[in-house]
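A reminder from the course coordinator: this example appears on the midterm review sheet, so study it carefully.

Given structure:
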């Protein structure tokens, strides 16, 4: 049995849409800045930067915005912009408005919950100060003889950068673990901002994912009522009656890394936007499909660099003893924008997307002071052509059009999806299979790939060593996806998600109006309960040739409630006919999973009672995708050998038992299932 991790996204984004996910050519041009807000016009040059260090605070001021940081803790406690003295919540104390944080744990600990550290720093230094640029450093040094294991064994350096005539500021952080320091686990790290709740009511995370949001007060009892998965709250008595009866949950606004370059909040009165812009995914964990939180009720806006969401414990970064490590997270850009009163505030989203494009185009930034952040001329390029050859389909290699190709630290097949210590660089191949990875940091990488519509993972046999200025052409790479015979039947599309399967309407009691009639209908709350309603007496039966996976294959194989806090596993059947099985051949069942949570998938053939089963995955996954309204987590691919002698003439049944039953949230989502015959077989 093989078990490899692999991926594929079939939602054929145009190739350019991976890099520039939001931009349409019809984007309206931006109106001139409101004179009330603008300091700069073509006639008067923008004022030089000013830095004020007053007692326990440091203020960077470029005439457009003023950023107020606590000294030496390095917390952002004020952003003055657009005539408003502070866009951040002054209801929160100073350390709770804009901050970097880490969740970590001691070596050997299990789970994904740990010790929260807001990274209060002890040293403040001005790195750059001139008329064009300010760069500040807030740092702390780990002292292994004084901390007694209470602090995370990392040196922390939080940087804040402001440029002249820029409507925002940059931030990045450098984390460093020295060889002789203790081992530890890193669960999560991010930067969070808490805009003020009396102003910021409209949230945008994508063109089709934006809405007016409830208030944080609406989530607290008795206005809000926590649901079965407590982050989800039913708004029973919200302050604004329009939200009454809706569900709110931050996980409904999560995004894949590749689609999460800009998100944030809009104030309509006055029209002001506050945005997080990540020009690249290179410093984020887990590659382009890793899902992260974005913005949510609070109001809160996050850039999450590393988390275990939709992946679980396999995603925790484990540092051993004697393991030196250093990583730069960011820079990201905090962008502010505004419009004259009376203009449509939603145009601020258009401008935020344009600003995101501008940041992408100037990546890697040339103005960052730290030597740990390599500039463009210190980086390299890796290019080549990616082809695919699928035996039993064609003898020819064809361009792997739309393939995802990436560089990540060396590991096993598909290891990049839970790799977090290094940097990752991804792109998509063009129609001819050609790809070019630009601005790659120096380092020793493996080259990985996967192709929408095909199962499995590709990994190039050689390591790729990038040095400053290197231009490496790897030539033609040929990926042979797993296949040992012709397709007898298949269910779904190999795209690493369950999106093509049947996704029910939500219970009318648990609606988020944003996702009604929406392409992401899977983001509604409570869909797991709909399985038992649709299949009250008997589990799902799929008949090859008659059933349609879009209608007849429920998107998640979840448990069935059988009493108070009691759940049962389920057994799904796939019925198919074979006229003359090849009794000497080996048939292969390919099971590609889009996610798993505390699940055990057992496979049987024709005999529901067979013990042991023909195959079991054992207990797999802590992705928590069902509870968090996702459509995929980590990708897992299994191959089950079926001896031809066990197949019968006529009707056969494959029984798929999800045996684990301790909660409503355990289960799996399939990506794709295929039965391959031996070379000579016929249906
Ligand atoms: C910076 O913020 C602190 C705390 O909110 C405040 O006391 C101080 O006046 C601010 N400084 C400036 C120059 O705005
Ligand atoms: C602390 O670090 C020093 C070197 O910096 C090392 O020699 C020593 O073993 C460390 N002590 C502990 C308790 O880890
Ligand atoms: C580390 O802590 C020890 C014990 O408190 C102290 O003696 C030493 O000076 C500290 N080292 C540094 C570099 O701060
Ligand atoms: C200042 O920024 C504005 C808006 O981005 C731009 O139109 C203007 O040309 C800039 N001015 C200077 C002197 O760079
Ligand atoms: C990724 O998860 C697998 C288990 O699924 C684990 O064996 C591996 O060590 C993890 N990789 C990293 C880099 O943490
Ligand atoms: C496709 O790639 C091949 C090999 O590099 C090249 O010869 C050919 O011209 C390319 N075709 C197009 C349309 O770019
Ligand atoms: C690159 O990494 C691999 C795997 O760790 C290692 O075997 C190889 O020697 C490394 N190559 C270089 C040049 O460091
Ligand atoms: C959903 O869309 C259908 C057809 O596009 C429309 O008839 C229906 O009213 C919509 N439902 C809601 C709740 O918007
Ligand atoms: C085989 O299955 C088909 C479809 O479920 C059914 O119509 C047929 O009667 C079955 N044949 C036998 C021999 O059981």
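Designed residues:
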């Amino acid at each position: 049995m093989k078990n490899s991790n692999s991926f594929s996204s079939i939602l054929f984004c145009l190739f350019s849409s991976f890099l520039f996910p939001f931009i349409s050519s019809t984007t309206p041009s931006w109106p001139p800045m409101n004179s009330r807000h603008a300091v700069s016009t073509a006639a008067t040059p923008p004022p030089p930067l000013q830095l004020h260090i007053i007692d326990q605070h440091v203020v960077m001021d470029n005439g457009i915005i003023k950023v107020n940081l606590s000294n030496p803790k390095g917390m952002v406690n004020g952003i003055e912009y657009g005539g408003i003295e502070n866009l951040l919540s002054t209801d929160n104390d100073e350390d709770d408005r804009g901050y970097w944080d880490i969740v970590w744990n001691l070596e050997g600990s299990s789970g994904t919950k740990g010790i929260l550290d807001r990274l209060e720093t002890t040293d403040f230094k001005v790195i750059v100060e001139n008329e064009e640029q300010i760069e500040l450093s807030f740092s702390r040094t780990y002292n292994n003889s004084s901390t007694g294991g209470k602090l995370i064994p990392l040196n922390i350096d939080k940087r804040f950068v402001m440029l002249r005539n820029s409507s925002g500021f940059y931030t990045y952080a450098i984390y460093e673990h020295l060889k002789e320091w203790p081992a530890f686990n890193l669960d999560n790290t991010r930067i969070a901002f808490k805009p003020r709740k009396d102003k910021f009511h409209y949230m945008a995370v994508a063109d089709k994912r934006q809405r007016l949001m409830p208030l944080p007060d609406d989530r607290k009892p008795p206005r809000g009522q926590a649901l079965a998965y407590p982050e989800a709250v039913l708004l029973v008595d919200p302050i604004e009656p329009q939200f009454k009866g809706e569900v709110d949950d931050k996980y409904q606004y999560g995004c894949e890394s590749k689609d999460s370059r800009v998100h944030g909040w809009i104030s309509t009165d006055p029209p002001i936007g506050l945005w997080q812009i990540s020009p690249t995914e290179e410093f984020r964990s887990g590659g382009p499909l890793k899902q992260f939180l974005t913005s949510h009720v609070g109001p809160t806006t996050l850039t999450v660099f590393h988390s275990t969401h939709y992946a679980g414990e396999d995603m925790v970064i484990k540092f051993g003893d004697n393991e030196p490590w250093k990583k730069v997270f960011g820079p990201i850009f905090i962008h502010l924008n505004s419009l004259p009163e009376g203009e449509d505030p939603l145009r601020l989203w258009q401008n935020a997307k344009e600003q995101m494009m501008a940041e992408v185009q100037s990546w890697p930034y040339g103005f960052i002071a730290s030597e740990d952040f390599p500039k463009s001329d210190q980086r390299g390029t890796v290019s080549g052509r990616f082809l695919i050859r699928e035996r039993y389909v064609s003898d020819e290699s064809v361009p792997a059009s739309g393939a995802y190709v990436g560089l990540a630290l060396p590991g096993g097949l598909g290891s990049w999806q839970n790799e977090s210590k290094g940097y990752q660089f991804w792109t998509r191949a063009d129609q001819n299979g050609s790809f070019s990875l630009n601005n790659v940091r120096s380092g020793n990488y493996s080259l990985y790939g996967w192709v929408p519509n095909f199962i499995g993972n590709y990994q190039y046999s050689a390591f790729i060593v990038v040095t400053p200025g290197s231009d490496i052409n790897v030539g033609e790479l040929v990926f042979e996806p797993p296949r040992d015979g012709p397709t007898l039947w298949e269910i779904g599309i190999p795209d690493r998600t369950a999106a093509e399967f049947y996704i029910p309407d939500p219970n009318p009691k648990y609606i988020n109006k944003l996702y009604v009639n929406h392409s992401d209908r899977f983001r509604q709350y409570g869909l797991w309960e709909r399985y038992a309603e649709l299949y009250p007496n008997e589990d799902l039966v799929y008949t090859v040739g008659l059933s349609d996976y879009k209608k007849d294959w429920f998107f998640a194989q979840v448990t069935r409630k059988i009493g108070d806090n009691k759940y049962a596993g389920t057994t799904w059947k796939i019925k198919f006919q074979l006229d003359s099985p090849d009794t000497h051949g080996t048939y292969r069942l390919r099971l590609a999973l889009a996610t798993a949570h505390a699940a055990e998938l057992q496979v049987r053939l024709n005999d529901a009672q067979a013990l042991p089963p023909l195959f079991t995955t054992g207990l797999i996954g802590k992705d928590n995708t069902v509870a968090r309204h996702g459509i995929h987590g980590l990708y897992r691919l299994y191959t089950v050998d079926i001896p031809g002698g066990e197949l019968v003439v006529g009707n056969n049944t494959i029984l798929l038992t999800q045996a684990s039953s301790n909660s409503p949230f355990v289960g799996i989502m399939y990506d794709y299932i295929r039965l391959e015959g031996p070379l000579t077989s016929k249906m």
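The first helix runs from residue 15 to 19. The helical segments are 15-19, 216-219, 347-361, 530-534, 549-552.
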